Amino acid sequence: MENDLVLKVQDLTVQLDHRSILEHLAFTVKRGEVITILGPNGAGKTVLLKCLLGLIPYSGKIEWEKDIKIGYVPQRLPFIKDIPLSVMDFFALKMVFGQEVRDIMRAVGFKEEIFARKIGDLSSGQFQRILIAWGLIGNPQVLLFDEPTTGVDIGGEETIYNLLAKLREERNLTMLLVTHDLTVVYQFSTHVICLNRQAVCYGPPREVLTIESLQSLYGDDVKYYQHKHQ
Amino acid sequence: MQNQLFLSLTAGIFIGGASGYLGSLMLSKRMALVAGPLGHLTLPGIALALIYGFDVSLGAFPFVILGIVLIWLFELKTKLPMEALTAVVFASGVAVAFLFLPMEQAETALVGDISKAGPWETLISVIIVLILFFVIRNIYPKMVLINISDDLARSCGTNVEKYNFLYLLLIAIIVALGVKMVGGLLTAALVAIPASAARNLSRNLTQYALVAIIIGAVSSSVGILLFRLTGFPAGPLIILANTATFLISIVFRR
Known about the structure:
The complex is a heterodimer. By secondary structure, chain A is α/β, with parallel strands linked by helices.
């Protein structure tokens, strides 16, 4: 693989139950980039992440840099509240204990008081930060996020993205994010993939996110929106 | 007489504790009720064991395995919901059993009979339960992770299929042991109630598993002791002791 490239995707096609979910997708990701995968519901965004993680079958080629470590933060974990699980227990499921948990938790802004709390008692924003910390275990070079702010209130959303920006800086992370949120795309990402089964656009957001590309992504009634400040 | 009580209590404590432990995993996978239909499915096996005079657990085990394989196969072929298929399979199991189950032994088949546990039978049960404890303890963190999210577990490199297979095998063994104690009708309660009560009383995973084991073991002992005092069948008394614990746990919910 060429220098600086961490991921190369060629002709990626996915069919589930005889239905085409992704068609002939191709893109590359360089070290340190933040790629946002943008698209309407059912566009194949989560499926793309799952393909990159090797969780579902596909045709085409997905090539990661050799020996790269990948962290994954899923969209929702609806069953996690079925059992009494403390924050510490949740980390123990990944066989991580003690100092390592403390260090990672500090990185996402938590003090030790939270360790004994039940996951079910946390706010959605706190839980999301715990998930990010969980994804950071083992010092991954790449983080994959599926809708990092689903269910998080508006103030909390900003905290999550500020946190991701800070972590990216501190740990030189490459990130791939699935989102609906255009603000995130403009503020946070270096590149965007507009996905609706196929890649409708791909490149730096300010160059490729035009009224035409957004219309072909979301339909004709989309209102053009560009985030002005940095 | 005292010897018999000791044997029944030993078998009851071990099987009850292990059922509670495994039940704590089944609750998180929303599978606690599956043990019910699987228990019903053992009835033809229990009937054969009663007719030919061998251990009911031995008769029950192959039928649970058959049930699991059938449910899995039907789901693969029909894509019908698991609950519907389980209903189809377990009702058929009960129907088949009643074709040849000797009526005078129906009570033993339906609600169990731990009061006649022999020394060898008890020893074998205890050894199997100790192995079960060891296996459950080893797979527990991975199973909890799989129960929370298959994808998350896979992304951590967990072989989900291998763990699910082991898990189903453990359920089959627990059901086969459980029917000896509480019969084909009541096995679901043996795994579901201690875990449900433990969930009410715990704030973390260690407490949850431990409390489920203790409630399972204590309820079995109380049920067996009550049987000695009242003469009512032990199986239903064990389940009612479990139910009482569950009701108490609601009051002390954390």
